[in-house]
Amino acid sequence: MGKIYMTACMKGGCAKTVTTYNLAYSLKELGKKVLCVDFDSQANLSTCFGVENPVAVPVTIGHLMMAQIDDDELPGFKEYIQSRNGVDFISSSMMLSAVDAKLRLEMGAEKMLSEILEPLRDRYDVIIIDTAPILGALNITALAAADEVIITVNPQYFLKTVKKIRSRVNDRLSVAGILLTMCDARTNLCKVITEQVRDTFEGQIRIFESRIPNTVKVGESVYYSEPLIEYAPESNATKAYKNLAKELINYEG
Q: How far is CA 245 from CA 97, 119, 121, 123, 242, in A?
C-alpha cells in the first residue's frame, strides 16, 4: 500500500513545489511508482508538468473535490490522472479556490481528499500532495489525507497544526522530516538557519541530511517543464534530490 506525503511551507518562495516535482522523479528513478497531486489553485505544479492552460484540463483535483462536496460519483482514474515522463499527476486549476470557500461550510470536509486518494494507494508506492503556502481549509484536508508531512524551511508554526490534526482528525499523521531548501552551504545565512533548526528540533524531529541548494538550473528546468534529473543530471540540486529520495526510502525501512 502506498504512502501519502504532503509537502508544506507557510510562506511562498521556499522551493516547496519544485521539491515535490523533483522528489517525484528521483523516487521514480529508484523504481517507485509515483503520483503527484497539485492541491494549490495557482497550479504551479501542473505547470511544472507541462500543463500550459490548467483551466482547459477537463477534470482537475478541483472537479474531484466538488464532486465530493455534491455527493456525485467520481469519474474513472483515466479521466483525471495524467502522466509525464513516467510520473503520474492530478492537475489543479482556479476551481480549487471555489472548493476552498465551500469546504468551510461542509460537514466532514477534512476527509474529502482522503476519500479521493485512498482508492489510489494500491496503484502507487508514493503519493505526494503539493499544497498552497497558507493554512486554510484545503491544507487541513491535505493533512487529514497524508501519512507524513515534509516541511520545507521554517517549521515552527506548521508543527503546531500537525499536532492538532493528529489529535483531532488523523492519528496516523507524522512528520517525515524538515528539509532545508534554497540553501548555499558556503553562506553564513545557510549556516545560521541550519544551526537554528538543529538547536530547536534535533532529537525531536528528523532533519534531512540532504539540503537543496539554490541554483539557476532549478528555474531553468521548470521553465522547460523538465525535471532536474533530466535537464541537469550532474547538478548539485539533482544530486541533493536523489539523496533525499534515498533518505525517504531508507527511513521507511
A: 31, 24, 19, 19, 5
Give the pLDDT confidence score for residue 154 in this predicted structure. Answer: 54
Per-residue pLDDT tens digits for 61-110: 999 999 999 999 999 999 999 999 999 999 999 999 999 888 887 778 88
DSSP the chain: --EEEEEE-SSSSSSHHHHHHHHHHHHHHTT--EEEEEESTT-HHHHHTT-S-GGG-SS-HHHHHHHHHTTPPPPPGGGTEEEETTEEEE---THHHHHHHHHTTSTTGGGHHHHHHGGGGGG-SEEEEEE-SS-SHHHHHHHHH-SEEEEES--HHHHHHHHHHHHHT-TT-EEEEEEE-S--TTSHHHHHHHHHHHHHHTTTS-EEEEE----HHHHHHHHTT--HHHH-TTSHHHHHHHHHHHHHHHHH-
- pLDDT of 181 reads 82
